[in-house]
Amino acid sequence: MADIKSPEARSRNMSRIRSKDTGPEIWVRKVLFSNGYRYRKNVMNVQGHPDIWMPGFRTAIFVHGCFWHRHSDCKYAYMPKSRVEFWNSKFEQNVLRDRNVREELLKEHIRIIIIWECTVNKLKSSPEGRELLIHKISSFLDSKEMVLEM
Q1: Got the DSSP string for the chain?
Q2: Tens digit of pLDDT for each residue in 68-120?
């Protein structure tokens, strides 16, 4: 099936997709900051360059886009209809990179929180979403768990 946009229009759309400071990422940071948590963002010296790095807790937070990181059973993780081979390869590389980053961080005893874009969307639309996010994160930080995925 052919793309409904011209190659130039598609390229223009794709070039506007941000890898840093996305809407969901900014929302999570605001919730954390307003609840007294301090962090650094987009840290280059931590494996995987986490979106949010909480050095006091040795915790890396990744706010993953469901489409790019292939959130299983998520409506946002659809497969484009054109250039299927290209997209399959791209998505496989992303998933493999995410798995390798996870393994490396755990080897270094760095805790990991993965927050999916669809979860952020649900929390943002819920009146108690901010409190639920903080409750889950603070419970995780108080625990001995190494990975939280939400």
Answers
A1: ---SS-HHHHHHHHHT--SSS-HHHHHHHHHHHHTT---EES-TTSTT--SEEEGGGTEEEEEE-HHHHT-TT-TTSPPPSSSHHHHHHHHHHHHHHHHHHHHHHHHTT-EEEEEEHHHHHHHHHSTTHHHHHHHHHHHHHHSS-SEEE-
A2: 899 989 998 888 888 889 889 999 999 999 999 999 999 999 999 999 999 99
